[in-house]
Amino acid sequence: MLWLTWRQHRAQALVTAGLLAVLGVLLLINGLGARNLVDHAGLLPLQQHFKAMGDLVDWLALAPAAIGLFWGAPVLAKEFERGTHKLAWTQSVSLRRWLVIKLSVLGGAVTLAGLALGTMISLWLSSYAGTQYADRFASIGKFVISGILPAAWWLFAFATGVAAGAVFRKMLPAIALTLAMVVPTILGLFIVNARAYYATPEQAIVTVEGPMSIPEDWMIQDSYPVDAAGQPVPNFCPAEQPCPRRADSRILFLYQPPSRYWRFQWTEAAALFAATLALGAVAVTRTLRGRT
Amino acid sequence: MTDEPAVLTATGLGKRYRRTWALRDCSLAIPAGRVVALVGPNGAGKTTLLHLVIGLRTPTQGSLRVLGEPPGKDTTLPRVAFMAQERPLYDGFTVADMLRFGRRLNPRWDADLGEKRLAALDIPLDRKVGQLSGGQQAQVALTLALGKRPDLLLLDEPLANLDPLARHDLMRALMTAVAETGLTVVLSSHIVADLENTCDWLVVLNRGRVQVSGDLEELLRCHQVLSGPAELADRLPEPVSVIEDDRAERQASLLVRAEPSTVLDPRWHSRPVGLEELVLAYLRRPEAATLPRPSLTRI
Question: What was the ipTM of the complex prediction?
């Protein structure tokens, strides 16, 4: 069974491993270069150096879609579509065992690949330590591809693909459903800034004098101008009243401090893992009950 | 015959897809060592019955025992082989990969048999399965089934979409395997002529019900075609049952079931019945049935 799993999915495995290796080399080169720039050069060269890699890395937040497509969807949909399930499930391995082995081996491989990515990104970001480019918390794009989250996201996308295959039993609809579930989930959480709500935010009032900068790596949930007593000041002043001067206004921030990075990583990973289990249950029961 | 153990026993077996019954109230017992022809028109439930036996489907009602155990279990699967109608194989695998597939997934796999068979058939091991001809793919599929060294081999329309030469080769390969190992074979077909010289047990399925199940020789012996004056047709003795009644003017031609010892009016002219004739007669009259002999249902 292990041989069969490898033989059927080796293309995906090799391509994924190859891409991760190439990315690793690029990150290593970029990271080593950054160490010199952080200490000795000005802001502009550092920014350019980061951008060279950062533009590519930003796309990795969408990598789960590819995992669902190439790793998840074919597991059941391709077998059903080609009728090869009648071959695979009539050997000496029962359907139950076939499912257990396939899903655990492939799910395990996807998880390991995700962990590899998360570790590489974390190490790469650490080479920018002390600059805003190392922000792995405030920048949601980096939050989801560092630490353990890539593993959780990739496993979730894999389970989505498998479940879609169990539901539709054809590649094209399974791919469509996988994309329709994974991509909006990624973008939706980003758009509603869901991570800022994982815990009750801290509050801080920042007095604005001249150009303002937010303390390092804060994840902002909300901010609004307040008066000296900490009461919100309307943004639009009625015409008859004098407006408080914006230059010295005080701004209240509701924010998550970067010390909550790991706590949030585990929160999101746990939620994704729960969804993964539910999707896995859908895939298994649909397949087993498809015989009735 | 009563001592032959049953390889397959179905009791009141039924299978429903949504609202339609594909198989209903099906009771069968098939003794070991037989080559069983499972015949019936398209949609009669042949594929459904085979899928139930191999465990790709679960029955809606009734019970089914395969080699004495419920189907689809880890313990029964190694002893039953199945070749689906479309003869599915992994197109991207080489022939050698397919053999490896057989070896890795079957504890009783006979590596020697697989390689020898394919070598004898001149099928190159390094060729992708998708690039083989239909006849070669059928042979690879059959090799996979035989290499499993099954006690029961199920073949769903094994000859469909094959040219006459490939049909002949496949049947010959099958018969060789049966002669060598004594395994039980159930093969379905809607073309009766394919099975005439190879099978020794007949099961006729029609509209989801079993119409006939029995030893082929005995079935042929117990049926005959009578022709004679029409007025005699309504006065046949009790143990004779009429399966097909074809009358023209004052002549009647009847296909009847009767023990050969039955004494008939000498004005009848009697001749033996052919397999195809027998099957067609039953299919035209779904309400007629020759059910399993009591000696077999006992097991």
Answer: 0.88
